Amino acid sequence: MNPRNANSILFVVLQAQILIVLCAAQDFDFFYFVQQWPGSYCDTKQSCCYPTTGKPAADFGIHGLWPNNRNGSYPSNCNPNTPFDPSKISDLKRTMQSVWPTLACPSGDGTAFWSHEWEKHGTCSESTLPRQHDYFSAALNLKKQVDLLNILQNAGIEPNGNFYSLNSIKGAVTAASGFTPWIECNVDESGNGQLYQVYMCVDTSGFNFIGCPVFPKGRRCPSDIEFPSF
Ligand SMILES: *[C@@H]1O[C@H](CO)[C@@H](O)[C@H](O)[C@H]1NC(C)=O
Questions:
Q1: Active-site annotation, residues
Q2: Residue 103: closest CA among 157, 43, 184, 190
Q3: Residue 73 Cα, ligand 1 centroid: separation in angstroms?
Q4: How confident is the model at residue 23, as a pLDDT?
């Protein structure tokens, strides 16, 4: 083989490697950062259980940071070789108990919730947030950047069991954050739609809010929704 052919083979191999790296970096397109209102989680037929650490604050809590594709699909359970390891985030545990509380029954200290979030979603963003500590820290940082309850209260939207227009809720978050959220409702025992989860979009770095490339396909809210107390 002459040296020129050897060079071009090397070039092709290098290109293939670059392509593989690029593909690995693009295994998702953006994140949904999802926060939930505990009052609506609990105000259902199924109800809820407070964590073993006690009743959470009356504030939106983190549900998760979920990799998603532009076409609406999402990857899940991407790496069975990196199971959740609480010892890797022990320094974050107290903060997580306060802003990422579990409300599932039976009562827990949050470990089962965070483990589920890491294994289903976190393992799919290891290309940009390789360590468990990076992933959970990114979510905690996002929570600090957008104080949803404060934004809504500044717009006169209070968790007092009253009904508010979906548009006024979306409008308040859009005005304060610069980005239109997706609102997910659930229903109380009487069948009223209520403010359950707020989705905002984040770039693949996990640090910057962006306009949503696509909204979730979930259940739509009625035009007026309840904001229950907690
Ligand atoms: C959506 O995009 C992802 C990633 O690009 C791809 O793997 C998946 O097959 C696509 N799904 C559909 C339904 O097009």
A1: 63, 117, 121
A2: 43
A3: 6
A4: 45
pLDDT in tens, 37-65: 999 999 998 999 999 999 999 999 999 99
**What is the model's pLDDT at position 8?**
53
Count of structural domains within the chain: 1
The tokens of 146 are what? Answer: 């957008």
Residue nearest to atom 13 of ligand 1 (CA): 73
Chain segment 138-164, per-residue pLDDT in tens: 999 999 999 999 999 999 999 999 999
pLDDT bin (cut points 50, 70, 90) of residue 217 is confident
Asked if residue 10 is part of any domain, the answer here is no
Domain carrying residue 111: 29-226
Q: Is the CB of 69 under 6 A from ligand 1?
A: yes
Q: Write out the two tokens for 11.
A: 């070039």
Q: Is the CB of 27 under 6 A from ligand 1?
A: no
Is position 23 within any domain? no
Instruction: Answer whether residue 110 is part of any domain.
Output: yes
CB of residue 26 inside a 6 A radius of ligand 1? no
Taking CA atoms only, the protein residue closest to ligand 1 atom 9 is: 73
Rounded-to-integer distance, Cα 60 and Cα 198, Å: 9
- Is residue 195 within 8 Å of residue 185, measured between CB atoms? yes
Contact 29 CB / ligand 1 (< 6 Å) = no
